[in-house]
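Example protein as discussed:

>
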Amino acid sequence: MAVLGLAGLVGRVRLGIGKRQLELELAHPGLGVLTHGSIVTEGCNTGAMTEADTTTATAALPSDGFAHRYGITVPFDGVPMAEHRRWYEDLLRLGYTDVWSAETDGLDGFTPLALAAAWTPALQVGVAIIPAYTRGPALLAQSVAAMAEAAPGRFTFGLGTSSDVIVSKWNGVPFTEPYKRVRDTIAFLREALAGEKVTAVYDTFEVNGFRLARPVEQPPPIFLAALRPGMLRLAGRAADGVIVNWLSATDVATVTPELGADIPVAARIFVIPSEDADMARAIGRRMITAYLNVGVYAEFHRWLGRGPVLSAMWKLWEDGDRKGALAAIPDEVVDDLIVHGSFAACRDQIDRYVANGVDIPVLAVLPFGVDLAEAVEGLAPR
C-alpha cells in the first residue's frame, strides 16, 4: 500500500469508550483521528484492493470449531459502507475467516455484518460489542434474530455493559447495575431466541408476553465482554464465549483461568504495522491514556499487576498533567498492549496470543505510514 499523506497533520485521539471523550493535541506528525476498534479516518486507496472472484473465493474456515479463525475489525475507516464489498471479498482471498464490528460512536454494530453476510457468505461475522442497555430487550432480540437469519450458523453475538458515557450521556439510559443487566439480558435472549413466549421480571427489567414472530432456527452463540474475575466468571457460567481486549499475549494466561469453563476466547488486538517504533509508541501512549484512565480499565490493569508501572501515569492524569502522563508510560507497557513492527513481527505477536489461549484474534488495524490495503494484506494469516 502507498503511504498515507498525513505528514504534518495535527490530529486528535478520540476513542468512543470511557468516561470522557478525549481530545489530545498530538505533536507527532502523521497521526490522524482514531476511533475505538477502527482504522484511520483520513482515507485510503480502495482501488488497491483487487476484485475477488465471488464464484471461487472461499474463506479459510475452520473444520474444528473455533480453531484457526482469524478476524479483522470492520467497517474500515475511510471506506464508505457501499464500497466494502470488494474489501470483504478480498479478505476471503487473503485467508481471513471473520469480520467483527463494534458499536460506539460510528456505525451501528449490525449493519456492516448484514452487508458482509449478504456479499460474502463464506465469512464468519461477529459484533464486539452491543451494549446491554441501548436497545430494549425485545428490540435487541429482534436485531439478533435478524442477523442470525442473515448469516445462519455464521454469526456470533457479543454483549457487554459498554460505558456510562455511551449509555447515559449519549443515549439517556441510566447506567445501573451493569453486572446484573448483562446477566439478565443473556437469560432473556436464551428464552426469546428459543421461540419461547417470555413473561418475566428480571432484576433490571421486565418483559410481559414477548415472543419472536419469526423463530430463530440457529440461535447464535452469545459471547460476553469481560475484564475482571466477576464478569469473567459470569461469562464462564452463562455465555458461550468471552471477549477480551486491552491485554497482552502474556495476560491471556492470567485471564482465562478465571472463566472456570472451557469456552472460546475472542480478543480485539490493536495493531500498528510499522517499524517506526517511536511513532508506534507515540500513538500507543495516546491510546493507553484514553482507555486506561477509565475506571474499569484501570482496575483491570491493577488486577493484571501493572499498578506499579502505571501509577505515575494515573496520578499525573488525575492532576491534569496530560503531557506528563503520556511521558510516564514505559515503553514496555506500550509494547505489551499494542502490537507493532514489521508485518512478520506483528504476525508473530498475534500468534503468541493464540498460543496463550485466544481462539479468535480480531485485529484492529491502525495503518499509520502504510496504506490500509497493504496493511490488511501484510497482516493476513500465514
Q: What stands out?
A: Residues 46-378 form a domain with the TIM Barrel fold (CATH 3.20.20.30).
